[in-house]
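[Q] Does anyone have a clean structure-token version of this?
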Amino acid sequence: MSELFATTGTIAAIATAVVPQQGSVGIVRVSGDRAMSIAETLFHTPGRQVWQTHRILYGYIRHPQTQQLVDEALLLIMKAPRSYTREDVVEFHCHGGIMAVQQVLQLCLENGARLAQPGEFTLRAFLNGRLDLTQAEGIADLVGAKSPQAAQTALAGLQGKLAHPIRQLRANCLDILAEIEARIDFEEDLPPLDDKAIVSAIEKIAAEISRLLATKDKGELLRTGLKVAIVGRPNVGKSSLLNAWSQSDRAIVTDLPGTTRDVVESQLVVGGIPVQVLDTAGIRETTDQVEKIGVERSRRAANAADLVLLTIDASAGWTEADKEIYEQVHHRPLIIVINKIDLVEESQRKNLQSKIPNCSTEQSRSPKSQIFTSAAQNQGIDTLETAILEIVQTGKVQAADMDLAINQRQAAALTQAKISLQQVQATIEQQLPLDFWTIDLRGTIQALGEITGEEVTESVLDRIFSKFCIGK
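[A] Here you go.
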């Protein structure tokens, strides 16, 4: 392996978040051939407790030379191969905070362990055959999940729901390769190759790869979330909308125009998708230098957002200022939020709606591109969330299977596999010799193997596991 991962020896790391004066428990994890001897050196058990695998012992952690008491703790023993890394693993469950876990970690390092690299525990689990690469990446996704749906998708990967179809595709390619190579080596002893059957099998494999590739955007959305910018003139209710939506008082709300001077963020979950909502300063021409900076930040936020909510004041109608802002943001995925509907009559709503551009006629826009809300009365929020989810479903992001959501690395490998299959098909159509068929078929097999780790390079492992936290 590369220098990033020296996968020999015994490693130790703090496996829980360390926060000053917070957290009731802190865990120090040790894995490797010296894990048990380190535990026996540091941990002292009162009474006649039995040191057996998968048992929890109660006792005290003491400095081996001075016998000074470091902490009262629990010790969890997991002997190989029944552990996360398939090595001997011990965990010291200490009191939370900073000092106890830091002192215990230091004692482990002084008595034969070295500090683990980011992701090294999971890397050892992969190298020792406990996990494949898709499962390892599922663990990283689970740790970083921002919504229940993202967590469920990560668990699906951890349970092998992605690895199984990939392995099946690779096995099918290997069967086709065996058929072709058999004809090359024993042409006189075997019947002619059924070209149509080979082409049909390749087409089925390519179709399944396309289905898996269709989950890439959904996976990216679940991992990174949707960035939504609320924009509009001053005093149209943008901050009130954010507060009503997030059920909090994140933004200051007054009757004075220009109250919001900077971008205010709030994290929400809509239909299982994490959403970062940005409440921006009102966009208008101003001589106030501070407000001018806020307006410029609002424009940048709108251009960087995945979705723009252009908010207007129903009582003021569709103004020239609204039109100017619309011209600046209409190239983005857009929903027009007609706020303060509690201040107008039904006939005024219909008249106003007829004057506002209908974004649904433009490509990749929600059928419900005009939403009526009253942030002050907490009305219309459900309709707004429904419209956002419709944009997700009818826009670029299309994933039929929420359980499967590939990441960028997996998508790149699948794309390469698909390209190689297309080249195989072109070779067959050109009626080239069988030797040429096998070249690109091997490329497909290798690309699929990179996804699960059956064929993988050190640089790929470095890139994957360096993104993990140290204790994982």
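[Q] Thanks! Anything notable?
[A] Residues 163-185 form the longest helix (23 residues).
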